[in-house]
Amino acid sequence: MIDRIGLYRLHNDPSPSSPPDEPSGQTTATGSGERPRVIAVWIILAAIIVIYILSSLLSGSLFQPSLRALLVLGAKENSLIDQGQYWRLLTATFLHGNLVHIFFNSFALYALGPESERIYGTGRFLALYFIAGIGGSVASYLMSPVPSVGASGAIFGLIGGLGIFFYLNRQILGAWGRAQVQSMAAIAGINLVIGFSAPGVIDNWGHLGGLMAGLAVGFALAPRLTVNQTWFPPTLVRHFESWGWGMAVAVFAVLSALAVVLPGAS
């Protein structure tokens, strides 16, 4: 998937290889093999690893940080969120319960993150990732009384964001694009089934919340692709909906209101 989307170079400034006077909000994809830069994914991944090392040092165990250390660092704990510690809905997404947990989440972020950032751009990628992560934490807070940690909600949000991008652009991307929609749906479905098969161990509400938030924010912020055949060679153009950021902010506002107004599961 990464190689396919990376065939195009997206840019805003007119150049000799691109037509001038592009409409506002649009960017042109040329035939260059240069890929958009990926920055945010590596920063997030580094932060997750550094925070895991910190939690291990506080616990005296590299394999499994203690619950006490995780709570100190910001795990999702409903009773503390009820007391107003809403920041835990975000900080929990940087924490992991054991070495296996962080390995799989880090690998998933490594696999899905770069493509997501190239498609959405860094700013929109950050909005997708963090709103989905908060969506997962809010769903877990409302539906599960068990303390929880992990980037899984945000990663499910990336699955939703990629899935909705390929769905919206399935006509332009053809059979390959439709196959990616099916692939994202299969990945989400398999992981949800695994989660429901291990209640109390895997926070499936967090996964569902992240997926739903990712679909909503992805629908708002995903680029729409068109082919302009008036230029030669035909040029792939992407544009972003003018209402996209407003909808993303609205999703964040709804999640915040749910967390503030409704009590956590007990």
Automatic annotation (TrEMBL):
Keyword tRNA processing: no
Stretches assigned to the Peptidase S54 rhomboid domain: 83-223
An annotated GO BP: proteolysis
Region annotated Disordered, chain positions: 11-32
Superkingdom field: Bacteria
Localization terms from the record: Membrane
Transport found in the keyword field: no
Protein name per Swiss-Prot or TrEMBL: Rhomboid family intramembrane serine protease
Annotated organism of origin: Candidatus Chloroploca asiatica
